[in-house]
Amino acid sequence: DRTPRPITCQELLDLNTVAVGDKFGNVSVLRLPRGADAAAVDISGTRALWDSSREDSTPKLETLCHYHVGEVVTGMTRASLVAGGAESLIYVTVTGRIGALIPFASRDDVDFYTRLEGCLRTDAGRPTGREPQAYRSYYAPVKHVVDGDLCE
Fold it and tell me: Which part of the chain is the RSE1/DDB1/CPSF1 C-terminal domain (predicted)?
């Protein structure tokens, strides 16, 4: 990931995937790709003390999804919204707003909600006149996230 992110919170999703929130109000899910060089990753941190010129310090994470919340995200955790249901990523913001990133169960759900969001974005007029896609893509384009506030 080449985007500089002043991270305010993070949640480890699996060994290679992490969800992060930054001080600009963005939530992103980042993954270390399979082809990443494991020798260049220094878990202990001692290499950074002795090596002042890091030629191998290229960004290794790829962005799986990105979404602009609009407020500084201060905490996030994985939780199930219903007993026995799939885990969701729950986040809270500095003003007390609670939000969730919920994975879809099937490709049909993804297609339906993506089309619904597209129709609502073009057909429904916003009272403020603000374009939802431009707002949600303030720092980087929205990637693999359906705007639940718009579909609500």
Answer: 1-152
